[in-house]
Design a protein that fits this description.
DNA polymerase, domain 1, six-stranded mixed sheet, 2 domains, 289 residues, Rossmann fold, alpha/beta
Length: 289
């Protein structure tokens, strides 16, 4: 049975900025929750039968913030969006989906831990997220990355085609290129093309020689890049730590616990009434009872 791992944080952000606003009977903004719930219902229909879990950033603060002061926080995130995180987690559970609420870790860590833990038991693991960090979790055709919005699936060959490096080099790639979404800049001058060319040959930061004169990779501005790496190697290693997903995040369920058996009728109907989601009441295609 395939396992789908849903990036609930991404889905909630996407819904907040893409779905129309909506108020609950009590006046709470719940448009993002409605959008996420509709998207989750579509996913359950498209991939059934399936096992499924969703990971969420219950707190947008993790151990990475202690390692690097510039790492992303909830600063600048609209208050109406932050207020919908617990409601979104409740909505997913009301749909019968296991939710991993991440606090010390991030949602991506939960997904990485789930993919690593259940890859052997699942016929296939589908990570439903376009987040480039998660490309490091891809394994052959068994663990793949799905961008639902663009309907694009990346296996290991697809990761190489897109980034120019294999999945295991993605943390090194992000360390050099940087990741503005997560708040770290990478090293000066290291762009996607030069980084891919060097890592395609050397794989990881520690294997790249200090002197460009011995590089077995042809890149423009090699001397400048080598100098930036020599001077910033410690910083690059820190960025790689930030980019490396933790496969020891707390995921305690057994694979059998993740099998989706349908939507539990009463909890779902109660949530729809509480949040004013009457248009979604009858949307489930399969009820638990």
């Amino acid at each position: 049975m395939r396992l789908v791992l849903l990036d609930a944080t991404y889905e909630l952000f996407r819904a907040y900025f893409g779905a129309p606003p909506r108020r609950s009977p009590e006046g709470l903004e719940v448009g993002a929750v409605a959008g996420l719930a509709a998207s989750a219902l579509a996913l359950l229909r498209e991939h059934a039968p399936l096992a499924v879990a969703a990971a969420s950033d219950t707190v947008i603060h993790s151990f990475r913030n202690e390692l690097y002061a510039g790492y992303k926080t909830d600063a600048g995130v609209p208050a109406e969006l932050l207020a919908q995180f617990p409601l979104a987690e409740e909505a997913l559970e009301a749909l019968g989906v296991t939710v991993w609420r991440m606090k010390e870790f991030e949602a991506d860590d939960g997904i990485a831990a789930g993919a690593a833990r259940f890859a052997e038991e699942a016929g296939r693991v589908i990570i439903a997220s376009p987040d480039k960090d998660l490309a490091q979790c891809v394994v052959g055709e068994r663990v793949v990355l799905l961008d639902r919005r663009r309907d694009v699936t990346l296996d290991a060959d697809g990761v190489r085609d897109k980034f120019g490096v294999p999945p295991e080099s993605i943390p090194d790639y992000l360390a050099l290129v940087g990741d503005s979404a997560d708040g770290y800049p990478g090293l000066p001058g290291w762009g996607p093309k030069s980084t891919a060319a060097v890592l395609a040959r050397y794989g990881h930061l520690e294997a790249i020689p200090d002197s460009h004169g011995v590089w077995d990779a042809r890149v423009r501005g090699a001397a400048r890049l080598a100098r930036a790496l020599r001077e910033g190697r410690a910083q690059a290693e820190l960025y790689r730590t930030l980019a490396t997903l933790r496969r020891d995040a707390p995921v305690t369920e057994r694979f059998a616990d993740l099998e989706w058996r349908g939507v539990p009728r009463e909890p779902w109907l109660a949530l729809c009434e509480a949040l004013g989601l009457g248009h979604l009441r009858s949307r489930p295609h399969r009820w638990l009872d």
